[in-house]
Amino acid sequence: MSQPIQPAEAPQDQSTKLVIGAVAVTLLLASLGQTIVSTALPTIVGQLGGLDHLTWVVIAYLLSSTVVAPIYGKLGDLYGRKIVLQAAIVIFLIGAVLSATASSMTFLIFARAIQGLGGGGLMVVAMTVVADIIPPRQRGKVQGLFGAVFGVATVVGPLLGGIIVEHISWQWIFLINLPLGILALAVIAVALKPRADRVSHSIDYAGFVLLSGGLTAFVLATSLGGNTFAWASVEIIGLIVFAIAALGTFLWVESRAAEPVLPLSLFRNNTFAVTNAIGFLVGMAMFGSITFLPMYLQLAKGISPTESAMQLVPMMVGLIGASTLSGFFMTRTGRYRILPRLSTFVLIAGLMLLGSMQLDTPSWQVAIYMFLVGVGIGPVNSVSVTATQNAVPREVVGAATAGTTLFRQIGGSIGVSVFGAIFSSGLASRLGDAMPAGHSGSFSAQAVAALPEATRNLVLEAFAGALHPVFYTAAAAAVLAFGLTFLLEERPLSNTLRKEPEAEIKAEEEGAASVVGAPATATS
């Protein structure tokens, strides 16, 4: 079949533009929930203690937002996008307030889990709204914009966190979500119309429980293994066995459910299967890098939280630029397969270079390494969502979008867990018995600076050395992602809103050019 002629850009009325703005605000809110805490972690650990639980402040949010993603897709179909999105924002803000009142690491982890329960809905429902109102080919440019929002949050979040920690207190990194959340609620109230009709759907509660339990057990095993418990311990083996049993039963239940949480037929779709496998691996590298780079900059390089956030700017520039350009490329050409192939290759290079960093590595070199990592991450998210929504039937777009978010978040959760275990194990082996008697195990820039010079130098070398295998492991994940890009089939992006991916092809064959670029109604 010949290449479709490039049509005029689909017109967008004010209602549609307002919807796009509302989605951008909610995605910014969810993204800040993930990233704003990173630069504050050393300070939080310094006050609350519990270095061995540090990664759980991130994992709790990622894990809870991951396991609720599929159910939010079903709730959106049942009750309409608007009410579900508003409920997710309210839950997110409740979790933020609870996090700000935490007086122990345990309570903070619990509060972050509550916050994640809302954050998971923000991402899934917001991106599904876009699939409802914008054709796939024009959606490429919009997804590029959303990729830029994620990129801004990647640096603005840590920067805000650093400034707030230095000049106010770490509690305000959570309270700062309140005005943004209220703004998001207001914009959504105006932009989205409630759905007049209710579609009768059955929610696969058994599948949701089994998927949540299996994923939780797996992430717990990867986090606690080699750290709190030995890998061969009864606890870790038990968690792994439970995870395998729960996920295996989940597959059995899904094959028989009337409306499964995650339809197994999606995995027979090349675009869905391959892009999600790539997203899973890139998610590992992404969240691992974002979590551990501020720690390296603050503790190994001895700079402030604000300065460490500012040094993440090159990563943001690379991520925003690559995401935006990839979006325009998809809209202009209707194609996408080359984008993840190029970006994952660049990601490999950036992560390998980060793994080679030493205490005396110049800041400009670190900036180049971060820029490359950002370029490598940028296009993957926008390509995954756009290509998947284009390749699946309209009636399962919500489930497919939730699946895309699910696998990226699972990759992030497991990545932070695995990298945290690698880092903790490496740090412990390098430090040995070098720490002074009575040291609490809480590390902050101030605590490290107060150590005797010989011990301080040993600690700094240990931190830098313990991070090397973290970045090398992330690079290995990127290598696997690069290999998978060669398995990705390409389907030219449709220019119309349709019930089936093949509808645009059929319309062209019948000469129905009048449907191309038709405006959509901003109703959810």
Could you characterize the architecture of this molecule?
Pfam families: MFS_1. It is found in: Cell membrane. Keywords: Cell membrane, Membrane, Transmembrane, Transmembrane helix, Transport. InterPro entries: EmrB-like, MFS, MFS_dom, MFS_trans_sf. One of its GO terms (cellular component) is plasma membrane. With 524 residues, this protein is mainly alpha-helical. It has two domains: 414 residues, Up-down Bundle (Growth Hormone, Chain: A); 55 residues. The protein is 73% helix and 0% strand. The protein is globular. It starts with 13 loop residues before the first helix and ends in a 15-residue tail after the last helix. The N terminus and C terminus are likely disordered.
Write the layout of secondary structure elements.
Elements lengths: L13 H22 L5 H8 L5 H14 L1 H11 L1 H20 L4 H29 L2 H32 L4 H4 L1 H15 L13 H20 L9 H21 L15 H31 L4 H6 L2 H21 L4 H18 L7 H29 L5 H35 L13 H5 L3 H32 L18 H7 L15
Helix pairs in contact: 1-6, 1-7, 1-9, 3-6, 3-10, 3-17, 4-5, 4-6, 4-17, 5-6, 5-9, 6-17, 7-14, 7-16, 10-11, 10-17, 12-16, 12-17, 12-19, 14-16, 15-16, 15-19, 16-17, 17-19
